[in-house]
Design brief:
20 helices, seven-stranded mixed beta sheet, disordered C terminus, Rossmann fold, four-stranded mixed beta sheet, alpha/beta, elongated, 2 domains
């Protein structure tokens, strides 16, 4: 699962003015500059604050100066002045008469303020994780206001389009790199994920809420049924799964729909966990977990399914994935891909890509078509479960916060703050439409054995209980 954090602040609008102030100060006599710097004036402070590696450390900042307050006010303007207060390290607040109920963004040292200008998409997450930025009030409300403010003030633009093309080229997820990326995120400990995922199937993908009032556990089971009904699974089907997580879907398909599953995954911890669970449930003869890359799938199957793997594949590998699907599906065969995506191509947030999900990229629908179009595969149905993912993340975040003390004991405060921000930012990204959740059904383009309606996806009321 991936997310997007606010960070599309157009700081280029700020930096030229900021440096023009510095330039004017540099034109003063050298003696005056030395005296001003020695006395802790604006020039010396600015020079130190804007160095990439030498900004003042937390707790070492002096009082604020006029240029500090100018920069802070400009940051508020660039995120849309959307009902957010800003506090500096000496207690100065902007706007001075701001509503006390507004969320508050607190820069705890001067270095944090100026570092946030150098690379806001990356450094906001870094500084928050380090405790050098604090959010007082509701974190979700703060992030949502920032998103809305930025969305009003920015558009795709040429620079963003160029960044998107660069992101596509840079995602060269070879088998070795894919293995390293997956290890970074998924092999940090099964006990950690147990703290906040659903307890029965450990689903780390979007749940399905036929009723938004049901709980996370019920919604995850409803998702598993929803996927199986879309695929029209029947006893005796052979199913291949690419990227199986902790093995919950494979066990569920075998138990409730009578199929045989071979599931591929490159996370050692997940495969070991999934294999153990299959043995405990007496499914060893019907579910096989293979520690291998999806590019090494062999055999012929009635059904292909992949839940939450596509974000790790990389756009350059989509035609390869399509060939694997084409070659492994029997005729007629059917498949489903479930993936986080976007309405238009854009790179993943830099902090998320570096610290949480290296190598990840949420594709647009036009990019996903590179799987199908070159390989004789026909898309049958597309469903967007964006708001379902926002509800899912709400459930995860509540469970995470209930166990946050334990997370800090298992890792450290920096890790706990990073993951809280990641989950909260993801929730808001889906709620505000920055991220989507696509489910695509497909088959071979010559297959005419197709359902005439979607009735099979929605059983009659009472015929299938939620959580069954």
């Amino acid at each position: 699962m991936h997310n997007e954090l606010p960070g599309r602040v157009a700081v280029n609008a700020l930096i030229p003015r900021h440096f023009s102030i510095m330039k004017a100060q540099e034109q003063r006599p050298q003696q005056h500059r030395r005296e001003n710097s020695t006395a802790g004036g604006n020039v010396g402070t600015l020079d130190r604050s804007l160095t990439a590696h030498g900004e003042p450390q937390p707790g070492h900042s002096s009082g604020t100066h006029a240029v500090d307050r100018y920069v802070a006010a400009k940051i508020l303007a660039l995120i849309g002045n959307t009902g957010i207060r800003l506090r500096l390290w000496d207690g100065t607040e902007l706007p001075p008469a701001g509503d006390a109920s507004w969320p508050l963004l607190w820069f705890r040292d001067r270095g944090a303020l100026y570092r946030s200008l150098q690379h806001p998409k990356f450094n906001f997450g870094e500084l928050y994780s380090q405790g050098r930025i604090e959010i007082e009030g509701d974190l979700l409300e703060f992030l949502e206001r920032v998103y809305h403010g930025i969305q009003r003030g920015t558009g795709p633009g040429r620079l963003q389009s160029a960044a998107s093309r660069m992101a596509r080229r840079n995602k060269k997820n070879t088998q070795r790199r894919s293995s390293e990326n997956i290890h970074h995120h998924y092999d940090i400990g099964n006990d950690f994920y147990r703290l906040w995922l659903d307890s029965e199937y450990m689903q780390y993908t979007c749940a399905y809420y036929p009723d938004p009032g049901i709980g996370l556990q019920q919604a995850q089971i409803a998702k598993l049924h929803h996927v199986c009904r879309k695929l029209q699974l029947k006893p005796g089907d052979l199913v291949v799964e690419a990227g199986c997580g902790w093995g919950g879907l494979a066990r569920f398909m075998a138990t409730h729909y009578g199929v045989t599953v071979r599931a591929y995954n490159i996370s050692r911890e997940q495969v070991a966990f999934a294999t153990d669970m299959a043995q405990r449930h007496g499914l060893s003869g019907r579910v096989e977990y293979v520690l291998d890359d999806y590019r090494n799938i062999t055999g012929q199957y009635d059904v292909f399914v992949s839940m939450g793997m596509l974000e790790h594949v990389g756009v350059q590998q989509y035609p390869v994935l399509g060939r694997i699907i084409r070659d492994c599906l029997k005729t007629p065969g059917r498949g489903l891909i479930h993936s986080i995506g976007r309405n238009r191509p854009r790179p993943l947030n830099a902090w998320i890509e570096r610290r949480i999900f290296p190598g990840a990229y949420p594709p647009s629908l036009c990019e996903i078509m590179d799987i199908f179009e070159p390989n004789g595969l026909s898309v049958l149905d597309v469903e967007n479960l964006r708001l379902h993912y926002a509800l899912t993340l709400g459930g995860w975040l509540r469970r995470f916060e209930q166990n946050e003390d334990q997370v800090r004991q298992m890792y450290d405060t920096h890790f706990a703050r990073a993951w809280r921000l990641y989950l909260a930012g993801s929730l808001v990204a889906f709620k505000t439409g920055n991220l989507q959740l696509f489910q695509l059904m497909f088959t071979q383009d010559h297959n005419n054995d197709l359902p005439w309606s979607r009735a099979h996806q929605y059983p009659r009321q009472g015929s299938l209980r939620i959580g069954e």
